[in-house]
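[audit] Reproducing an earlier prediction to check determinism. Same input, same settings, fresh worker. If the tokens differ from the archived copy the diff job will pick it up downstream; this log only records the rerun itself.
[audit] input (255 residues):
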Amino acid sequence: MNSRRIIMIIALILSGIANAIAQEDIDNTIEEQKPKPKREFLRWGACIEGSIMGNLDMTSCGWGLQGSYRFNTNFNVGLGLRLLYWDGFSEYWHDDNYVYHFEKETDDDGDSHWRRQLDLTLSATYILPIIKRGGIALGGTAILSPIPLESFSVTRTPRNVYDNPLAVFDDYYGTKETKDKYVYDAFQPGLFAEAGLYYDINENGAKNRFTLMYGIGTFDMFMGSRHSKVFDQKLGDHLPSRKICHSLTLRLSVF
């Protein structure tokens, strides 16, 4: 009698365990079949970027911050600030009487130094997915200097002193004339068309996106001085004529 009761108790326990396991499997199946809520689509984000820009005459590098807005999962625009650095520039020419030396951003010893310029940036990017997390990025960037001033100096030295190998230090520095100028540079605008690649780190609406873009466009680093006249010398006749610039930009966007 006792054996039968023990067997019945064990059978009831095993039956209860089996029913509990079966019910858990059913609950899990139902839970898996329920549609999972999607992560909220975030339209506003931020972007940090580093860039190299220039041509054979001058090269600049810089970094910037932007606020971004996504119209949809493929298209976004950004507005922000970029701090550019570029090396100083100098150019020599002469006429029958004088040797002229144009200096853009140099120190008292005549050595060039890195110039700093803060620009406003406006960019737009459209992505074409190729793989699950990456693809092609197309876009453009416009830059504008909020301070429309450009500084430079022109030094004039009598040619007979400059060309005389026996001229002493005082002969040279006692006869040279220097004019420093600030000129209006029309906010020094630039416009670039860009193409590159992107890769997303996260999915489901929240993305950390790396974008590498190559750009080509117009940006005149001598816009103000090019139209100036110093010592009856039109500087545009002696400064580099290249206005086409290339750029390479790496961006990290967070949405």
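[audit] rerun output stored. Observation attached for the diff report: The radius of gyration is 33 Å.
[audit] end
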